[in-house]
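re: ur question from yesterday

yeah so i grabbed the chain u mentioned. its 277 aa long if i counted rite. heres the sequnce exactly as i have it in my notes:
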Amino acid sequence: MKQLSRRTFIKTAGVAATSAALLSSVRSTAVYGGEAPLTLGMASYTLREYNLDDCLAMTKRLGLSTIAFKSFHLPLDASDDQIKAVRQKVVDAGLDLYGGGVIYMKNEEQVHQAFHYAKTAGMRVIIGVPDHNLLDLVEKKVQEHDILLAIHNHGPGDEVYPSPESAFEKVKDRDIRMGLCIDIGHTQRLGLDPADEFVKFKDRVHDIHIKDVTKAAKEGKTIVIGRGIIDIPKFMKTLVAHNYQGIVSLEYEADAKDPLPGSAESIGFLRGVMSMM
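ran it thru and got these structure tokens back, copy pasting raw so excuse formatting
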């Protein structure tokens, strides 16, 4: 991929963001001249202040076709009938409910609940944070249900899984379906290069939360993608170079009351990067 100025990317991103509502899928041949090199999705924590119907509608407005639910949009303690009804609503909206999370597991009951929830909803991935002492049970549930576990790192201040490596060390000798959800914002806040971290653990990366941050430090905050310090083009080029097949889900944590403009600009920037690959 040739080197591009920030101005060029912003211009491309702006055009893509403006047309986002017209795109039926991120894999638009009109935009990329073939399949998009990566599949973008929505981490519904982005839309946490909105109800389920609005969450689905806003995801579609962004031209996204895949979504992972935070419990705001599908409660963990929902009945089987409720879970199936929500799943049908997602299908009817033309979206793929590929995963759920972040789901915390602090006791055995929560492990059983998480896997039953995911299986009933037809999810393929649990983006989770299981306590270390529960990993034997989690491994059994992964094998029983054939659902991927993607452990999410939360950066500075997190004593359980701060970095991608901290999660990898706990699963490296376990079932290959136990791996990582690399949150590139929290990774950058640790002073680590997200692209380098992906390469180190690429065989165990089952999901990605993509965002940008203001600073490579604990106090770094989420910002519109392309306006922060993360080298997003480098990261995405690295994913493509290593044939990453998972979802790259937007987790835009800023502007909770009005996330659509920042989300649209962020998705537009990502599409701009992909269109130049």
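noticed a couple things. The first strand starts at residue 39 and ends at 43. also Strands lie at 39-43, 66-69, 96-105, 125-130, 148-152, 178-183, 205-210, 212-213, 222-223, 247-250.
anyway ttyl
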